[in-house]
Design brief:
The chain is mainly alpha-helical and 46 residues long. The protein has one domain. InterPro entries: P-loop_NTPase. It comes from Tursiops truncatus (Atlantic bottle-nosed dolphin).
Length: 46
């Protein structure tokens, strides 16, 4: 389920190296629900 994926993703994206250097996601989000979850958690593409 999307909430499990987002929990794991949040743990990774909040690590220092991702915070300092940024991150790239390939083939994610896969659907509108995942995109909305990312947005609600403060992870916005730039």
């Amino acid at each position: 389920p999307s909430y499990v994926i987002m929990k794991v993703l949040k743990q990774r994206l909040d690590q220092q190296d991702c915070v300092e250097r940024g991150w790239v996601l390939h083939d994610f989000p896969r659907d509108r629900d995942q995109a909305c979850l990312m947005d609600s958690m403060g992870y916005k593409p730039n």
